[in-house]
Amino acid sequence: MATGLPSQTQVIELLDGEFARAGYEIEDVVIDARARLPRITVIVDGDTALDLDTIAALSRRASTLLDAVKSIQGRYVLEVSSPGVERPLTSEKHFRRARGRKVEVALADGTQLTGRVGETSGDTMTLVVRDDRARDWALRAIPLKEIVKAVVQVEFSAPPKRELELAQTEAGT
C-alpha cells in the first residue's frame, strides 16, 4: 500500500489471535489513509462488556503489534472501540451479547416490536414485550430467521425491575 499502512486483512491477521486470547473478536477494521494522520479503527466485540480499561489494554496490545510491522511508515492514529449501539443485530451472537438491552425489531411479516432481549438459544431469541391487556410483561419467542432488522435502543432511564428480571431468566422458567 502506498501509504505504508497494512491492509484490512493484514490488521485482522496480526491482531486476531491476541484479541481472541483476551476474549474478544474483531468485527471490522476500517483504514482511512486520507486523514491528515492515517487512522486504523478496529471494532471489537465479545461476550463480556467492553469497558474503558479493556479498550485501553486492547489498544496497547494492538499498538505494540502494529508498531512492530516494518511496512508501516510514519505515524498513524489507532482507535479500538465497540460496535456502538446503532449497529444492527444480525447474528445469534449479537442477540446473545445484547441480552437485557432494549431493541426495536422488524419482522418479515411487517410486525414492528420494541422489547428487551432475553435468552437467545440456537435459532430463537426471546423478547420481553409489554402485554397491555394483562398489564404485565410477556415473553415472546422469535425465530432469528424472521427478524429483518433489529437495533439496540438508547435508554435514558432505568427500565422496570420486572422487565429486567424476565430478560435475565431462562425462557419458560
UniProtKB/TrEMBL annotation:
One of its GO terms (cellular component) is cytosol. GO terms for biological process: ribosomal small subunit assembly; translation. InterPro entries: Ribosome_maturation_RimP, RimP_C, RimP_C_sf, RimP_N, RimP_N_sf. Residues 89-156 form the Ribosome maturation factor RimP C-terminal domain. It comes from the Bacteria. CDD domains: YlxS_C (cd01734). Residues 20-86 form the Ribosome maturation factor RimP N-terminal domain. The keyword Cytoplasm applies. It is found in: Cytoplasm. Its main location: cytoplasm. Keywords: Cytoplasm, Ribosome biogenesis. The keyword Cytoplasm applies. Required for maturation of 30S ribosomal subunits. Belongs to the RimP family. This is Ribosome maturation factor RimP. The lineage of its organism: Bacteria, Bacillati, Actinomycetota, Actinomycetes, Mycobacteriales.
